[in-house]
Write a structure and sequence with these properties.
flat, 555 residues, mainly beta, 4 domains, 12% helix
């Protein structure tokens, strides 16, 4: 608490009249009401806009899911619809599917926040699932239960959602002997054919990878009319728009043909355009895994590329391409690329490459630290002391408890502001998981004359022993505000705010970088509360808060 500069009781000033006070209060009340109404309306508009954007995005993803063979028939609950979009095709099904997507359509952490009974009875906007149209709609009808918000729930991050076999689309990759594209019998007219008058022996599986593919024979616009060539033979010639003895042969192309006695025999044989080989599939997919779930090897599927005419190769961490012969051993941070290469350029071209990177989160962090109070700053009359002699418990005291009444007389409140920190070692702290760095005790005292500290730094000298041996310094910067006393307990509370919850201390291992983050958690709600990064300490109280740390991964 800080009192304003002391005013002697004999000092005099003129006051406001009663009319002035009434007018000032009335104007202030009107302005406050306008501000509150505007803020409430703005908040509601923002929430409604977010909800509309969310359902528009979900409806687009539902359309893609259904176009890819998925079905939502029979689902009535919004969360069950969202969870359906988290499924993936089975590996065997995905290898044949020619669609753009075979996996999840939404983040596995996506969850629905349903309205409570009060919201459901109001006209507030909510998202409702329409089983008939199989789309989300906005409703404001009272009594209709719905979703007030779509949120990301980190507790769902480790959930394993099932695979499913979806309805096949008309065009798939061919898993047996045949063209790269497999043709649905009911949609054969939509197959990828060459010119309309091409002569092909169409069957469900016409292409045997062990044999030469069929050729395409096309005769286009060839006419021989009234042509007479006596006793002559033309071999390997091309005649275009020519006239022989009054006869004309137009628009014809003859390759390897013989013309004798006015007759033409033979035709044109073309070579098929080389086929692009299918992209192979790395299994499992690249991702960030927990230590227990991290795969030690990667296998590669040729995805239907023919045994004759192609070879499957891979490379690790952008190294040299190597023929694939079996499972590939990996460690955290490894990147695996695979590709089907042609060995017959007349028939095939190289596939695109499948690329996956694999990361493993560390099992835990173990270490200790030595704390020190430093960089104390404040007003012109700042008064403070620090005691860093015992690393298990350090103290900073600040503020002048005496008020000069004049004439050599002082009023001494006797209780200065104080912050104590008691450290804790940490052992087995998981990645992305809170752990305790220590306890902060803050005393809200009574001080005067702008003598309080307004900022201080808690410096932690860290020494990690796991997952790597590493030391470093963490500076946690606090700002403090000493407030005057009023009848409002919270408004009179002194505050301590963490200015840099994301520190500069990082640990990198296995291709993953972890950054230390800190926050305060109240340990005694009767003495103080934490809101965001600010700790509120009630007047005259000694409030306790835990200083929590978390090593947050970037993968």
């Amino acid at each position: 608490m800080a009192l304003a500069y002391y005013r002697h009781k004999n000092q005099q000033r003129s006051g406001f009249t009663l009319v002035e006070l009434i007018l000032a209060i009335a104007v202030t009340s009107v302005l406050a009401a306008v501000v509150v109404v505007n803020l409430v309306g703005t908040k509601a508009a923002v929430e409604e806009t977010k909800l509309q954007v969310d359902i528009n995005k979900l409806n687009n993803l539902i359309s893609l899911y259904q176009a890819d063979g998925g079905t939502l028939t029979g689902l009535t609950n919004p969360q069950s619809v969202v969870d359906k979009l988290k499924t993936v095709r089975t590996n065997s099904d995905a290898k044949l599917q020619a669609g753009a997507l075979t996996g999840r359509y939404v983040d596995v952490r996506l969850a629905t926040k349903m309205q409570d009974s009060t919201q459901a009875a109001s006209t507030s906007p909510r998202a409702v699932w329409n089983p008939t149209t199989q789309r989300f709609d906005i409703s404001t009808s009272p009594g209709v239960a719905g979703v007030s918000d779509f949120v990301l729930d980190d507790d769902l991050a480790e959930n394993l959602y099932p695979t499913e076999t979806r309805t096949r689309t008309a065009m798939q990759y061919n898993g047996a002997n045949g063209w790269v594209w497999s043709i649905d019998a009911t949609n054969r007219n939509n197959a990828f054919l060459t010119p309309a008058n091409a002569t092909l022996n169409i069957q469900d599986n016409v292409f045997d990878p062990t044999t030469v593919p069929p050729t395409e024979t096309t005769t286009t616009g060839s006419t021989t009319s009234g042509s007479t060539t006596s006793g002559s033979t033309t071999s390997g010639s091309t005649t275009s728009g020519s006239t022989t003895s009054g006869s004309t042969t137009s628009g014809s192309t003859t390759s390897g043909s013989t013309t004798s006695g006015g007759t033409t025999s033979g035709g044109t044989t073309g070579i098929l355009t080389p086929t692009t080989l299918p992209k192979p599939i790395n299994q499992p997919n690249g991702a960030t895994y927990s230590e227990a779930a991290f795969p030690t090897t990667v296998t590669i599927n040729k995805n239907g590329a023919p045994l004759l005419g192609s070879v499957l190769r891979y490379r690790k961490n952008s190294g040299a391409w190597t023929d694939y012969t079996g499972p590939i051993s990996i460690t955290s941070g490894d990147k695996i690329e695979s590709k089907n290469f042609t060995t017959d350029a007349l028939l095939y071209t190289d596939s695109s490459s499948d690329s996956d990177t694999y990361y493993k989160l560390v099992a835990s962090f173990t270490g200790s630290h030595s704390p020190t109070w430093t960089s104390v700053a404040g007003g012109s009359n700042l008064k403070y002391t620090t005691d860093n002699s015992d690393p298990d418990g350090i103290t900073v005291s600040h503020g002048d408890t005496r008020l000069d009444l004049g004439g050599g007389q002082y009023l001494d409140a006797g209780v200065e502001n104080r912050m104590d920190f008691t450290r804790s070692a940490f052992n087995g702290a998981g990645a992305n998981t809170d752990f305790n760095l220590g306890e902060l005790m803050i005393l809200n005292g009574t001080t005067f004359n702008d003598s309080e500290a307004t900022s201080a730094t808690l410096r932690l000298t860290l020494a990690l022993t796991q997952p790597v041996t590493q030391s470093g310094t963490v500076n946690i910067n606090y700002t403090m505000v000493s407030t005057p006393n009023t009848s409002d307990r919270l408004a009179s509370a002194d505050t301590v705010t963490v200015q840099n919850p994301t520190t500069s201390f990082t640990v990198t291992t296995g291709g993953v970088t972890y950054t230390l983050q800190v926050r305060l958690v109240s340990l005694d709600a009767d003495s103080g509360v934490v809101s965001g990064n600010t700790f509120y300490i009630y007047e005259g109280s000694s409030a306790r808060a835990a200083l929590m740390g978390k090593f947050v991964s970037n993968k």
